[in-house]
Amino acid sequence: MMAMKLIALAVFLGVYLLIMLGLRELTVASLAGVAILLLVGILDPRGMWGHVDFDVIALLMGTMVVVEALNDVGFFRWIALHVANVTKCDPLKMFLLFVAVSLALDAFTGDAIVVFLTMVATIMEVSDLLDVDPRPFVLGLLFTVNIHVSTPMSDLPPLIIAAGGGFTFPEYFSNVWLPCYASIAALLVTFIYMNRGVFLGMKPKYVRMPVSPSEVIRDRKLFYFSTGVFSAMVVGFIVGPPLGFSYGSVALIAAAVLLIIGGGKIGPLIREVDWESIISVMCLSILVGGLEQTGLIEDIAAFLASRIGGGTPLGITVILWLSSLVSAMIANIPYTIAMVSVLKTMEAQGVHTYPLWWALVMGTGLGGNGTIVATYTNIVVVNEVSKRGYRIDPRAFARMGMMFVLLTTAITNVILLAMFS
């Protein structure tokens, strides 16, 4: 049995190492890990699917289809152009409104990369027209939205944690909103102060964009229909669970309505779904299932319970800082899936873990600002900006990012201790 534990652990750490060093993509590394566990007999070909939460998969698929539809009809560019006009192209006001709009969209889309890429592309377009440097806008937006975990749909780790803990939307939001928005407020104040010369020194060429928001809408009826479906999906996330509809079922219903009624008028939405992310989540869940089957997760849970005592001040602090620092260095999805399994096992052993779930949520979110490689969104956005001629130095990113990680984690630590003391 010990040999199987060591093999399962070695495979999991090997997958992590391949991802961290950039030797293999997440999908390839996780698939290889599952194949090894199947070959050595740790995983059963039939039983391994029991480790996958298919409601999470359904939610990812559904929201990706809806977000791609909104992108196709010009929804995000339409909003961004309105933001510039409402603020009369004032750099600081425009930045703050871009942040507010992005936070609102991020709360319910579940696909941060698509939202980010569209918003960044629009910011670049707006910046070119106004003849201003887009990097302060892009970095400020990235740092802020990275730590926005106020709803289960705001990013993949919150979604995995909410599903694993069985938390409803109101319960999740009521426990996370205070540390989340306090951290965002502190980050924004610090970022604006550090870049005050940039924001105050910019002199835009226009006070109103020369491109009308209506010009980016190619089909007005389809635009209103898609935004209506998106709004209905948001309402469904809130009222659906008490009525017996899971998050995944709500997202799939919204996607089905769009695909059936939108038909060929909306782009090839199914092909635009990020299938690599979905396959990666499934494979990583199965890999963690291998750790469970060998009893390794139970051993880790027992060790943590004996050292931190569950939802104690020490436990909250350890889980928060461990999650934040690990997530600052490497992709947080494998860590999140493993820790969800650990916390569920600790609960089964009779340990009080409720506060630890929220420490895990906040830690995995806050750590995303640490380095460019901490999240896929960071990598994609920085590469996209660099392609357009605006280089972002990884070392400068890490210096500023790690400062924000330490600042926001410290603030969150105090708030969580006050909430659960």
Structural account:
The structure is a single chain. This protein has about 425 residues and is an all-alpha fold. It is about 75% helix and about 0% strand. The chain is built from 20 helices and no strands. α5 packs parallel to α7, α6 runs parallel beside α19 and α17 runs antiparallel to α18. The longest helix is centred in the C-terminal third of the chain and has 27 residues. The protein is globular and about 70 Å long.
List keywords for this structure.
globular, mainly alpha, 421 residues
Structural class: mainly alpha
What sort of overall outline do the alpha carbons produce when their principal axes are compared? globular
The averaged pLDDT comes out at 85
Radius of gyration: 22 Å
Order of helices and strands: HHHHHHHHHHHHHHHHHHHH
Determine the number of helices (DSSP H or I, runs of at least 4 residues).
20
Uncertain runs with pLDDT below 50, 5 residues or more?
A: none
